[in-house]
């Protein structure tokens, strides 16, 4: 099959509003968590999150256009625009029928749903809905808006698989190019759930950390005292191109997407398989799809949400797949910095893998204080500080509620 490479990157995250800002903050071990500023949290058990900061959508589009989009779509448009510009693509020279968009979001327009229901309630139940209510909330609308902006008429749709959504979007976009159904794809994911319904909904599930006294250290993957994840928001975008197509136009190649896989736990609506069965299967299949051996992998960017069950299960899965080589790996959870971006997590964490390859440096798992006796202490979980090493191949893991698992293998482009 045809080879697929990354030629453009865009990022809008709680630790940086551009790809370069995000990459710098990753390697510095910055925390994006702080007290919520969007609404009054007096009656909420969790009062903090990883919000996007210093962001004004009117710097990117007209106010009238922005009002017709939910925030998750606004985030998608901004990150996709950065990725297109970063790639150096000349949109006028693209065969639009051979260019497409596949975008992921786990929830879609939650803020739009919240606002419209509240408006109707204030009007005593009168059905006075905004005419853009449905077009703003549907999860596929971000890919639709991106395709309309750039005139891409190739494959265009959304992937929805909870926290694995944007990883599945990237994997599917890769396969679209591999199978000669497109030459160029914009892919990634976005999420915007740091609102009352988002914080309230995840809080009542007891999924969120309640470390309100110290939010910056609340996301503690693999730490004995972790108490849940920190909700984040944002977007990540990649420009994917068929290798020869990219070479012909003289594109800069940041990484090759060598393989991917998808599995299911078939176990529980929110909890992972306790032995990491689906997680080990998906990593093993992704390495095989990439034409590599487990020993070729240098770094695993784990799902690592900072939940009591998930972190243990994923560490077991890594040991199953890699055996003794697991102790040669660098492993880290960048959610310790960004929080959990839900459907956008896979995209921003794939970008973290690309940052590692291009900088020969593995971003850390910050906020580690106490070893967990249920997690093998000999694993190199890259605690608290970036570690320098040659990074040739990376696995990026994302696992979603419902038991959805995705792994993507990125590798250094070797010419």
The SSE string, one letter per element, is EHEEHHEHHHEHEHEHEHEHEHHEEEE
Give, in spatial order, the strands making up the sheet with the most strands. 5-4-6-7-1-8-14-13-9-10
Rg result = 20 Å
Helix content: 25-40%
- Measured distance between first and last alpha carbons: 17 Å
Q: What does the overall shape look like?
A: globular
How many beta-strand runs?
14
Structural class: alpha/beta
Mean pLDDT: 97
Number of DSSP helical runs: 13
Strand content: 15-25%
- Low-pLDDT runs: none
User: Largest beta sheet, briefly?
Assistant: 10 strands, mixed
Describe the protein.
The protein is α/β, with parallel strands linked by helices and 415 residues long. The protein has helices spanning 19-28, 63-67, 71-87, 110-122, 133-137, 141-150, 165-178, 196-204, 243-248, 277-289, 308-322, 335-338, 345-359; strands at 4-12, 34-35, 48-49, 99-104, 156-159, 184-191, 234-242, 255-264, 299-301, 330-332, 361-362, 387-388, 393-400, 404-411. The strands form three sheets. It has a ten-stranded mixed sheet with strand order 5-4-6-7-1-8-14-13-9-10, with helices on both faces. A two-stranded antiparallel sheet has the order 2-3. A two-stranded antiparallel ribbon has the order 11-12. β9, α11 (308-322) and β10 form a beta-alpha-beta unit. It is globular, with a radius of gyration of 20 Å.
Keywords:
single chain, 415 residues, alpha/beta, ten-stranded mixed sheet, two-stranded antiparallel sheet, 13 helices, globular
């Amino acid at each position: 099959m045809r080879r697929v490479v990354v030629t453009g990157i865009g990022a809008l995250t709680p630790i940086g509003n551009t790809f370069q800002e995000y990459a710098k903050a990753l390697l510095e071990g910055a925390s994006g968590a702080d007290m919520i500023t969007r609404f009054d949290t007096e009656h909420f058990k969790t009062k903090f999150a990883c919000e996007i900061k210093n962001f004004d959508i009117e710097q990117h589009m007209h106010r009238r256009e922005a009002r017709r989009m939910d925030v998750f779509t606004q985030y998608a448009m901004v990150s996709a625009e950065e990725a297109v510009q970063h790639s150096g693509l000349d949109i006028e020279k693209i065969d639009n029928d051979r260019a497409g968009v596949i975008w992921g979001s786990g929830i879609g327009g939650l803020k739009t749903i919240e606002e419209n229901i509240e408006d109707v309630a204030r009007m005593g139940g009168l059905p006075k809905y905004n005419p853009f209510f449905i077009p703003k909330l549907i999860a596929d609308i971000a890919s639709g808006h991106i395709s309309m902006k750039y005139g891409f008429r190739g494959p265009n749709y959304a992937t929805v698989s909870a926290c694995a959504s944007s990883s599945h979007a990237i994997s599917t976009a890769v396969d679209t190019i591999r199978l000669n159904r497109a030459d160029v794809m914009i892919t990634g994911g976005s999420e915007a759930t740091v609102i009352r319904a988002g914080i309230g909904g995840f809080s009542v599930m007891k999924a969120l950390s309640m470390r309100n006294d110290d939010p910056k250290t609340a996301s503690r993957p693999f730490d004995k005292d972790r108490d849940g994840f920190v909700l984040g928001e944002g977007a990540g975008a990649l420009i994917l191109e068929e290798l020869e197509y990219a070479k012909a136009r003289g594109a800069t190649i940041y990484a090759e997407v060598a393989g991917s896989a998808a599995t299911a736990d078939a176990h529980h609506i929110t909890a992972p398989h306790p032995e990491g069965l689906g997680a080990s299967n998906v990593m093993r299949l992704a390495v095989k799809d990439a034409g590599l051996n487990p020993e070729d992998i240098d770094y695993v960017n784990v799902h690592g949400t900072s939940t009591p069950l998930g972190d243990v299960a994923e560490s077991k899965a890594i040991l199953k797949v890699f055996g003794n080589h697991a102790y040669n790996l660098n492993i880290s959870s960048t959610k310790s910095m960004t929080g959990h971006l839900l459907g956008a997590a896979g995209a921003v964490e794939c970008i973290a893998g690309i940052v590692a390859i291009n900088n020969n440096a593995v971003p850390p798992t910050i906020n580690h204080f106490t070893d967990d006796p249920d997690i093998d202490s000999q694993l190199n979980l890259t605690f608290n500080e970036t570690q320098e090493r040659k990074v040739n191949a990376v696995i990026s893991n994302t696992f979603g509620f419902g038991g959805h698992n995705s792994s993507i293998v990125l590798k250094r482009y070797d010419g």
